[in-house]
Amino acid sequence: MRLTVIFVFLAITAVSCSKFAKVQKSNDYEYKLRMAEKYYVAKKYHFASQLYAELFPLLKGQPQFEDLFYKYAYCSYYLKDWPNAESLFKQFVEVFPNSPKAEEMEYMRAYTFYRQSPKAELDQTNTQKTIGLMQTFINTHPESPRSKEASGIIDKCREKMEDKAHKSAALYFNMGHFRAAAIAYTSLMNDFPDSEKSDEYKFQVIKSYYQFASNSIEDKKLARYEQVVTECNDFIDRFPDSKLRKEVDSYLTLSKNNIKDPSNEQAKTPN
């Protein structure tokens, strides 16, 4: 049964390819365009795209060109050829800036970068490009019904960027690079000031500086414990109702005690 299904599939594919080859060989451009439309409607984007590519330079300036350009760009999108789709969406707006479809093409250009945005651990260049282009779209088309969706995508991208920065800071801490971790968590707070995790990041800054002080040579400990005290006081001012307040108070007390009597340093971390 399975072999039969495979054989039928291969036979249908061979027939389709044979028909398409005949279409490609035709010199009748109107016929090719009609067939490209049929393939497009049937979601056979690979075939449609090849025909549109052949017709693209031949129909420039013709009444059909705008629609051909539009569908050619979408063929690349549906085939997940993101770089080519992005380029075609961009070119469409440049060639037809006053087209009713121009706004859609601007949005789709930004969206292709979103589709290329990888998981948080990887390089986020495409995520950053998505944020920039989506924000430009919102600024340029504030009344567009797509602006709300663009705003939601920006939020998702910023969450991913925040997650990446968080993972990087945590990696520094776990590797024992406490000063680098403190700086990374501080940058994380500054880059994402509206984050719901701001108090957690600030707490990690305190923990990092405390560990940095505890592991320092004697001559450096005093100034570094003073840094912890400063961070604890800043935390209390900014997050007076945080669930982490009790732990922050413990770090504050320990740091002050270690400043008073460095020779009798207490436990490296609060209980």
Plain-language structure description:
Residues 1-21 form the signal peptide. The chain is an all-alpha fold. The chain has twelve helices and no strands. The protein starts with a helix and ends in an 11-residue tail after the last helix. Mean pLDDT is 92; it is low at 3-15.
Question: What's the gist of this structure?
Answer:
This is Beta-barrel assembly machine subunit BamD. InterPro entries: BamD, BamD-like, TPR-like_helical_dom_sf. The protein has 271 residues and is an all-alpha fold.
Structural class: mainly alpha
* DSSP E strands, number: 0
Give the helix proportion (percent range).
Answer: over 70%
Poorly predicted runs of 5 or more residues:
3-15
Radius of gyration: 29 Å
- The amount of beta strand, in percent, is under 5%
Signal peptide: 1-21
Protein name: Beta-barrel assembly machine subunit BamD
Pfam families: YfiO
Organism: Pseudobacter ginsenosidimutans
Element layout with pairings:
Blueprint: H1 2-25, H2 29-41, H3 45-55, H4 65-78, H5 82-95, H6 102-115, H7 125-140, H8 147-174, H9 178-191, H10 198-214, H11 218-238, H12 245-260
Keywords:
12 helices; elongated; disordered N terminus; Serine Threonine Protein Phosphatase 5, Tetratricopeptide repeat; 75% helix; 271 residues; single chain; mainly alpha
